[in-house]
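[#protein-structures] MJ: dropping Thiamine pyrophosphate-dependent enzyme here for a structure pass
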Amino acid sequence: MSIDIRKEMGQSGTVEQRIVYESGNEMAAYAAHQINYHIMGYFPISPSTEVAQFLDLMKANGQHDIVLIPADGEHGSAGVCYGASTAGGRVFNATSANGYLYMLEQMPVQSGTRFPMVMNLVCRSVSGPLDIHGDHSDLYFALNTGWPIVLCRDPQAVYDMNIIALKLAEDPEVRLPVLVASDGYFTSHQKRRVNTFAHREDVQKFVGEHPPEGFKHVLDRNNPITVGPYMNEPDYINNCYQQSLAMYRAEAVFDRIQKEYAVLTGREYPILELYRMEDAEVAVFLLNSSSEIIKDVVDQLRSQGIKAGAISPNIIRPFPAKAITEALKNVKAVTVGDRSDSYGGHGGNMVMEVRAALQQYGNSTTLVISRIYGLGGKDFYAEDGLKMFEFAIDAMQKGFVEKPFDYHGITAGDPSKAPQRVLEPMKYEDLKTGLITVTPDETTGKINVRVPPLRSLTKKPKRIAPGHGACPGCGIFSGLELFFKGIEGDIVALFHTGCAMVVTTGYPYSAHKATYIHNLFQNGAATMSGVVEMFHERKRRGELDQYGLKDDFTFVMITGDGGMDIGMGPAIGAALRNHRMIILEYDNEGYMNTGAQLSYSTPMGHRTSTSNVGKHQGGKVFHHKDTAQIMAATNIPYVFTGSEASPVDLVRKGAKAQWYAQNVGMVYGKILITCPLNWLSEDKDGADIIDYAVNTCFFPLYEVEKGVTTITYNPEEKGKRVPVGDWLKMMGKTKHLSKPEYAETLREFENEIERRWNMLKAKHENPYL
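AK: finished. structure tokens for Thiamine pyrophosphate-dependent enzyme:
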């Protein structure tokens, strides 16, 4: 492309470029694929999940060589990335919100041992309560991790900063991991016109060869090194000092790199983005996407004769204190907007740093106003920007700040509109029907359960009210309610984050008629352990007598959508402690609540948004996790699998689970449920698909009672076993496995099903296996 043509298309610079129309997440992935990183360790969390999805789709089509490693959680993904970094390659990651906080422990390790990488933080509200929309509460946790942090106001900046960030991270004067921060949903999902390098070779030429000269790694057998040794003083403080020097050098290095980038592309990213600040008397300081909106407000005020200006940094670690002080030297008042609060600190982190910068460099005249805004994804409009300026104008006119710190955009409460109870508590008499009997067998030591005809149980009230927001055909609630039919009396339920949680609670509404608790993916089992033990201790002390409790609660933790991947550690811990509770997993074979990514329960060859099908990839490349067998290995008293396609079996197991949970200890159960939206199946076919999954022996129905395995339904003995291929043809996500090019994957999947089924039959026949 000639220079003249580039100018006609609104481009400048010396490198050939092409125009795409994509979102921030797509541009992060696009930059990564052009760089062609060695490794990406990742775990899905909204709104950053799409970055891995786009890369996996490109991988399936042979567009890059990045090894994509789906971790068991964000803490694990950070460990994958750190290990890959020590081995000398280029490493990439993306995360958001609580996912970032879960990996937070790893962040100072990465920077403190000076191993470069690039991570996209697609900024989102930190729970709780749970909110998946964009603000900067996760970003502010990153400020003390030792990572340089660059900011992206739009998808173009996401693309450019991802390329600049790698060069910054690997610069010998810096040699630190770099965080690229963009606004969740505002930037991550917003489609914009973006100029990109037309040729991957130009990107790779800009970032340079790898590994940089002089960088140590653990794969050089002739030069063995020790990574992360234990340090006594004074070595530790000296190490931190060296890291501090590198961080401050990063400001000048970033400025040098962005100028080199501007020559190639025509796009500049100065340390501070200043808009009409030359003679400004009032200003507003904002980060990321809001900084674009505020420019229109500046123009509006300028047309009214008000000398307004706007400041937005492109890098906040290191914090450009001197540059900010210089920009504010003639400004009489500035409003600093923080999209997160530093609770108890009289302002968010940015306003504190702006105030500190002004004091450090001798500016005692500029008045500073702090406003918290835009939390939980609350939109920022021009009207909000105008209000930010009004705070500064008022302070300038009065000569003092009347209200130094406040929230902007809150809604005053109205006591008359306080949430009212819609559903009355269920009556104990309706829940304790006596229709199901559970009796221990003194001879065998097992539990005998008598279940009446299912129609007689229909009068038991449903524990989840109608009106939830699940997708049509979702099998979660039919499966859960069927299990709950086997439970007599009161329950306390804890739901992991996931589809079942999200679609049943949206303040001020709740579909739960029993007591409900939510905690995040990884820690539900530990949380419920605390609830259980507190119940028994308060009961022992007589503190619960006033509540008229007739029987003990049954404590049930509901998990799904991969919750037994990221939450496996705490679940095993709770099992080993043998708390009297039930963990019930609904298995929809993926992380469905974040967009159908693969989970460890996704079977081999199945298509998900992170195990795509293309000419270079045929779905998930490794076998599914046998969670029931893992939990059985902890020697808890009762483990079972169930299916709504076998309703009497599931109700019976629910009753048995309650008896063990109230009298002996931990119970784990796994039920397979359908997800038509992401299985690409018809709503009406859900029960049939589940039935076929059982009859192929992919999902066998059995129980492990006090270590003894019993198959509760054997399709071979019933003459109902069907080929695996017949089941796979029922779902769009697996239809490709019937094609000749995927025959080897299908054969390996079938062989694994057969191997596990034969092992289960051996355990059924021998109580010592």
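MJ: nice. Confidence is low (pLDDT under 50) at residues 1-5.
AK: one more thing. The chain is about 35% helix and 20% strand.
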